[in-house]
Amino acid sequence: MSDDPFVSLVGVSNHVADVRLCRPPNNFFSTEMISELADVLENIDSNDDVRVVVLGAEGKHFCAGADFSGASSGSNTADLYGAAARLFRTHKPIIAAIQGAAIGGGLGVALAADFRIASTQARLSANFARLGFHHGFGLSVTLPDLIGQQRAAELLYTGRRVSGEEALAIGLVDQCVAPEDLTDAALSFASEIVMSAPLAVESIRATLRGDLAQRIVAATAHEMAEQERLRATDDFREGTRAMTERRPPLFTRR
Fold this sequence. Notes:
It is built from 10 helices and 9 strands. It is of the alpha/beta class. It has a 6-stranded mixed β-sheet with strand order 1-2-3-4-6-9, sandwiched between helices. The protein has a 3-stranded mixed β-sheet with strand order 5-7-8.
């Protein structure tokens, strides 16, 4: 395994922490990435100079999901969801800046943030069912909370891709901007939050999130059990094979 980090704190300026996923071009989703992201965000919680986090990514994609052709797809799911719970328990508001793909677990990471700003070139998808798989990373909670039960069911059942513009229309993101404006838009939004009293913002955030972290823990326990069950099926093997071969899957209900 490379010693290169999966996540980096680029710096802090004007009370805004610049955090980036840094395994370009795809920033594939993995236990290592989520664990490092939780580490970085927990450390930021102890830094009183930081009031807002902007979570971006280097390369073409925000997070293109798991790499089923490599080792990351076999990561320990219990460790992954333990790291996810840590991420949801952090205290500072997070703005996700999404370019390119936010797919599968990458969409889950984007939905862990408080706000999302997408490029017009972004595409978002909960593509799990098209892989013969159950969704994870707490999307059972975060997706319907954000866009409603009916719309969430549609996206989870179909696994279809949503453009940045459609994501804005259905409430999946808060802003959609030109690719060249993405960083500036995220920083401008962060600067608006910075103008508010930090203790008040964190208190309000805790009130609004309520028992979100506990709900994520309960949801991921169920999601993990279903993922493990479906991982043993022919349909999952066919779904992942079809994805790597860039062809429509032929599911057999086995």
